[in-house]
From TrEMBL:
Occurrences of domain Glycoside hydrolase family 2 immunoglobulin-like beta-sandwich (ranges): 193-300
Protein name: beta-galactosidase
Signal sequence, start to end: 1-21
Cofactor(s) needed for function: Ca(2+)
GO terms, molecular function: beta-galactosidase activity; carbohydrate binding
Source organism: Bacteroides oleiciplenus YIT 12058
GO cellular component: beta-galactosidase complex
């Protein structure tokens, strides 16, 4: 017998023995998601591509395939719009099923269709119309199929439902409305006698209670369970108690199976240990498996305790969460497993441990939450409107029977912001043997207050003065560049200080800009409606991404300043829920950063993930930090030992979790700005003699100008107000167009006297003022370096820079501004905190280093093509030096004072912002500014409802104060 015939005989024998029938067989009629599709025949009733049979990829949203019309869910708020796009689509394709499926039970499954779905197989109805676009549903088509030959399927889909409550719950919503079969379609074949589904409850102690739903049993069968770890076990586990099969009861569609194992490893978001539970239906003798079903489980105990908290395995949870939609610009709600894994990893990189959505997500996203470790709130859709009871009853069943076994799910949610039907609440426990708690987002319901967008001082009956567990299901709204990291440090410190706080969920994960097939691929975020993400539509990282990552770091470095007395010891806090710091690690590096005075290309070039930013640094010394063995919630001292610490400029601390993944990088300056600048100048002067220093600087004047001359640079000042009129590079006569400053920002400053002199070879111009500025002294040295030494707020009288110098005065921006044409600028390299721009209340996450950004005009959240991050324009913190790059007119500025913000141009406001209301606080006049204070940016709530770090700066001038110094040095050579 040939090998081919031998193998064929074996397969026939195995089939005869029923081996094939043991497992469920699946055959896809579509692809599996974005990037993996199958072509069907398609016709749409109206809009683009209507009135004719064509082809479409399945799964997909038909708008992105060139059919129908795009509609955003707030259509009902637009004048004159009575209904959204209401296309109907018809899908067709032929398929074959194996001949040996005859005699088995075959079901046709749809993982998600928008929205009313009517199905025909071989011209016959498969069942009732399904209504509801976010849910998995199926039909028993056993008797409709032709086995071993060709079959025809026809699916009729209505984008707008015939059920008013479905439209109210799903179509009047703050999201894009799509149509079509957008999740996979498949066939499943099981034996006629089979396990229909499993609903499992587990406990951290290793106990399993499985509700086993059966079909076709006679009462002579039995059930048995087997457990398999999904990772290499470091500890052994064993079955406890009776291991004999459990006899099935005839005519009982659900059987309960219980079992316990010793030595299992519990599931937590920090240790997502998983097991496969296989339940087998055995024949009368218990020797043959009729059918088996495997589900992935994690052993954990979820426990909500009123006026206490939400507990996981006996540990009180604080959820650091984000709201996420299933969305991608190229697929709409059609996604894939790779995207789900990417999203979970990005969420965890921000040190978040929880996610919420407005509807059940793709199962592969829940799988990723299970395996990578994210807590999940699974929500019945209902964006401010609820399903009616008959429809909602069906959809609760579909949602829970699909998702019930996922260990990541810790809460169920019944609708959103009024979109809850209270008659459905009890159904959640009907389908969930774990009896997880049900919330009504935005409501104070069943002892859990989920109030949305609370103010910093939220109280009086809730939270501060309340007695309910508090968990805002939405907070820190991130429209455009607002929110998320802005003010989070204040909010989080206040919230976590309260024992009834259970966590919060930011809005939202990514900007939902769809790539319009009708606009040549243009990205459309529906003006201000959809750009709410902490990530861009293609998962570009915005500034708040890094801010949240630092604020929510589970290994928290307490505020630290490096001084000569620093001996390598600093305080750390363990903000994990389950992990001891002894299982984590931290690396320290001492970095040296050169200035343009003697070159910045020394050292290592480190690319940054987004926007083309780079860091130039030289590692002087490095090693591992000795972390203390701290339990969650404890604070102690970490230690490092570096003999070369003060030879560097920056101390970098990078923390790693127990899995070895980086969780946060913090940096701390070793030298103050003035000390750093003096060192760099000394290094320059220590090189070969500079010929330019052999000639002294000089002064000239005319009717309107005082002119400072050096061999390298000439600078002209106006006599009327002591502002710069022009700067010329003498070597080639090139004008450097930094001018029309310094102009006072946030204070009054009126020129009083102006005098000039030479001193030690330098040309000096001294301007004295009435108001908040006392004086500005300009010094042009023979080598062409121009310094600016400004003294501010050093007296309580003499003209006053504010309305009343003895009272507290609010200041948004404080400093000086200049003009510089934006068209001249090609980029910026600087030493300070970066690479992202900052706001007063969103500085965490910006690290010290030498950074490079090419010029861009990204409008955060709004672009017709891919967005470019980091944004170029805006405030940059803790300036040491910056080179404004230009093909003709570059210059470098150095800070000799600490804490200076450098403003570079004015970011453009989003054109689609609501009613023309600006999203950002006002920037100073001019183009380039050097500031001692900048404003915070709002986050949904006005600044007055934020915490202290968001509030305007307060200044009080007292007689005898030394005042403030804002000292700079410019290099125009």
């Amino acid at each position: 017998m040939s090998r081919k015939h031998f193998l064929g005989t074996i397969l026939i024998l195995l089939a005869a023995l029923g081996v094939q029938a043991q497992q469920t067989e699946r055959q896809y009629l579509s692809g599996t998601g974005l990037g993996n599709t199958v072509t069907w025949q398609f016709r749409v009733s109206e809009g683009r591509g209507s009135g004719r049979w064509s082809k479409i990829e399945v799964p997909s949203q038909w708008e992105l395939q060139g059919f129908g019309e795009y509609t955003y869910g707030r259509w009902y708020k637009k004048p004159g719009v009575k209904n959204p796009s209401m296309e109907e689509g018809t899908y067709k394709r032929s398929f074959r099923v194996p001949r040996d499926w005859q005699g088995q039970n075959v079901r046709l499954w749809f993982d998600g269709v928008m929205t009313d779905t009517e199905v025909f197989v071989n011209g016959q109805s498969a069942g009732e119309v399904h209504r509801g676009g976010f849910y998995r549903f199926s039909y028993d088509i056993t008797d409709l199929l032709k086995y071993g030959s060709s079959n025809q399927i026809e699916v009729h889909v209505k984008k707008h439902s015939d059920n008013r409550s479905v439209n109210a719950a799903e179509r009047k919503a703050d999201w894009w409305l799509f149509g079509g079969i957008y999740r996979p379609v498949w066939l499943e074949a099981k034996p006629a006698v089979h396990i229909e589904r499993l609903a499992v409850a587990t406990s951290e102690d290793g106990t399993v209670k499985a509700e086993v739903y059966l079909q076709g049993v006679t009462g002579e069968e039995s059930l048995m369970a087997e457990l398999t770890p999904l990772a290499i076990e470091t500890t052994s586990f064993s079955r406890v108690g009776d291991t004999t099969p459990v006899r099935v009861v005839k005519d009982a569609p659900m059987q309960t199976l219980t079992a316990s194992w010793d030595g299992i490893r519990p599931w937590t978001p920090e240790t997502p240990n998983l097991y496969n539970l296989t339940v087998s239906l055995m024949d009368k003798e218990g020797t043959r498996t009729i059918h088996s079903m495997t589900t992935r489980i994690g052993f954990r105990t979820i426990d909500f305790r009123p006026r206490d908290g939400l507990y996981l395995n006996g540990t009180k949870l604080v959820m650091k969460g984000i709201n996420r939609h299933s969305f991608h610009p190229d697929g709409g709600r059609t996604t894939n497993k790779e995207l789900s894994i990417q999203d979970v990893k990005l969420i965890k990189e921000m040190n978040m441990n929880a996610v919420r959505s407005h509807y059940p997500p793709d199962t592969h996203f829940l799988d990723a939450c299970d395996s990578l470790g994210l807590l999940y709130i699974d929500e019945l859709a209902g964006w401010q409107n609820a399903y009616d009871t008959p429809t909602g009853t069906n959809l609760v069943r579909e949602m829970l029977t699909r998702d019930v076994n996922h260990p990541c799910i810790v809460l169920w949610s019944n609708g959103n912001e009024g979109g809850w039907n209270v008659e459905l609440d009890s159904l959640f426990r009907t389908y969930d043997p774990q009896r997880r708690h049900v919330i009504h987002p935005w409501a104070d319901f069943d002892e859990l207050d989920t109030h949305h967008y609370p103010a910093y001082l939220t109280g009086v009956g809730r939270f501060t003065n309340g007695y309910k567990v508090f968990m805002p299901a939405e907070f820190m709204h991130g429209q455009y560049d607002q929110g998320h990291g802005a003010g989070l440090e204040d909010f989080w410190a206040r919230y976590t200080a309260h024992p009834l706080f259970a966590g919060g969920f930011m809005w939202a994960y990514s900007d939902e800009a769809v790539r319009r097939a009708d606009r040549n691929g243009e990205l459309d975020s529906e003006d201000y409606n959809a750009p709410d993400g902490i990530l861009g539509p293609f998962r570009e990282k915005e500034g708040s991404y890094y801010s949240v990552r630092e604020v929510w770091s589970p290994i928290y470095v307490e505020p630290l300043m490096i001084t000569p007395s620093f001996r390598g010891e600093f305080r750390v806090s363990n903000r994990y829920l389950f992990t001891n710091l002894k299982d984590c690690s931290m690396r320290w590096r001492v970095l040296r950063c050169a200035s343009p005075l003697h070159g910045t290309n020394e050292g290592e070039v480190i690319p940054v993930a987004d926007g083309g930013a780079q860091a130039w640094r030289q590692v002087v010394d490095s090693g591992m930090v000795q972390l203390p063995a701290l339990s969650p919630g404890e604070t102690g001292f970490a230690r490092m030992a570096s003999s070369g610490l003060f030879d560097g400029d920056i101390l970098e601390l990078e923390a790693y979790g127990a899995n070895g993944e980086s969780i946060c990088t913090r940096t701390f300056p070793i030298h103050y700005a003035k000390d750093y600048l003096q060192r760099e100048k000394a290094a320059l002067l220590g090189k070969a003699n500079n010929a330019l220093q052999t000639s002294a600087s000089s002064i000239s004047e005319n009717d309107t100008l005082i002119i400072l001359h050096s061999p390298a640079v000439t600078v002209s000042f106006r006599k009327s107000d002591a502002t710069i009129s022009s700067i010329t590079r003498n070597a080639d006569g090139q004008l450097i167009p930094l001018k029309d400053g310094p102009v006072a920002v946030g204070m009054k400053m009126v020129l009083n006297t102006l005098s000039a002199r030479t001193e030690e070879g330098a040309a000096i111009l001294c301007a004295r003022y009435r108001g908040a500025a006392d004086s500005i002294v300009w010094r042009l040295t023979p080598d062409g370096l121009l310094s600016m030494d400004a003294v501010l707020l050093n007296r309580a009288s003499g003209g006053g820079g504010f309305d009343d110098a003895f009272t507290d005065t609010e200041v948004l921006n404080l400093g000086f501004t200049f003009s510089y044409p934006e068209a001249e600028c090609s980029g910026m390299r600087w030493m300070g905190r970066g690479p992202y721009r900052v706001w007063k209340n969103r500085i965490p996450g910006a690290n010290y280093g030498v950074w490079q950004k090419d010029y861009n005009n990204t409008i955060t959240g709004e672009s017709k093509d891919r967005l470019v991050y980091p944004e170029f324009k805006g405030h940059h913190a803790n300036l040491y030096w910056a080179t404004l790059q230009s093909p003709t007119a570059p210059f470098t500025v150095y800070a000799a004072s600490d804490g200076i913000f450098m403003r570079v141009f004015t970011p453009e406001e989003p054109h689609g912002r609501q009613d023309g209301i600006n999203t950002m606080p006002d920037f100073p006049a001019g183009d380039i500014s050097f500031l001692l204070d900048i404003p915070g940016i709002r986050c949904f709530k006005p600044i007055s409802q934020h915490g202290p770090q968001s509030q305007p700066g307060i200044i009080r001038i007292k007689q005898g104060d030394e005042g403030l110094r804002l000292n700079l040095m410019f290099d125009f050579r």
